[in-house]
Amino acid sequence: MLTPELINGCIKKDRKSQKELYRLYYGYAMRICLRYAKNKDEAIELVNDGFMKVFTNLQRYDKERSFNAWISTIMINTSIDHYRNRIKQMEMEELNAKHELEDRENILSHLHYEDLIRLVQKLSYAYRTVFNLFAIDGYSHEEIAEMLSISVGTSKSNLFKARENLKKMLAETLVTDQQQMSYQK
Asked: Which residues form the RNA polymerase sigma-70 region domain (predicted)?
C-alpha cells in the first residue's frame, strides 16, 4: 500500500522503498506503456525509464494529487519522449493532412482489451502514439500536436490512418477467425 513513509523512503533513495513502490505500481505502469510500445520488451523499457523519472522527481509529487494520475502522466510522457527519439532515428511515414475523419462506426468496441492492444502494437510509432493519445487518453488534436511537435493536420491524418490500419487488421483477424471456425466443423 502506498504510504507517506514509502514515498519519503523513496525520496531518501532507500532501495527497499523504491523496490516496494516499483512492485506496487509495475502492473499499472505496464498497462499504460503497453499501449504505446511496439511489443512487451519495449514496454518494459518504457516502464523502467518511467520509474527512473518517478524516483528522480518524487520530491515534486504534490500529495494533494492522485498518485495514479501523477505516475500515469510520467509514463505517458516517457512514452512520448521515446516516440520523439524514434522519429529522429527513422524516417517518418509520408503524411497527408487532407484526410478527414470519416470513421463513425466503432468496430473496435467488439474486441477484448488484449486483442486491441496487440493490434495497436502493430501500428507504426507515429500512428500508435497519436491513436493512444487521442482515442484512449483523451487528448485533443491541438494538445497532441503540441506534445509531439507536429501540426494539427498531421495529428488528424495519423489518427485517420491508424484507424484505417486497425480496421484492415481487424477485418483480416475476423477472416482468419472465420476460417479457423470453418475448419473445426
From this structure: 21-86
18: pLDDT strictly greater than 90:
yes
Q: How confident is the model at residue 100 (pLDDT cuts 50, 70, 90)?
A: very low
Report the distance separating Cα 101 and Cα 103, nearest Å.
6
Task: Classify the phi-psi angles of 111: left when phi > 0, otherwise alpha if psi is within -120 to 50, otherwise beta.
Answer: beta
Rama region for 160: left / alpha / beta (φ>0; ψ in -120 to 50; rest): alpha
Closest CA to 127 of 173, 91, 95, 169: 95
Alpha helices in the chain (DSSP H): 4-11, 15-36, 40-57, 67-89, 113-121, 125-131, 141-148, 152-184
Nearest to 133 by CA among 115, 150, 111: 150
- pTM > 0.90: yes or no: no
The secondary structure of residue 111, as a DSSP letter, is: S
Task: Please report the domains of the chain, with CATH numbers, ordered by start residue.
Answer: 4-89 (1.10.1740.10), 107-184 (1.10.10.10)
Cβ neighbours for 91, distance < 8 A, ≥ 6 positions apart = none
Cell numbers representing residue 80 in the block: 512520448
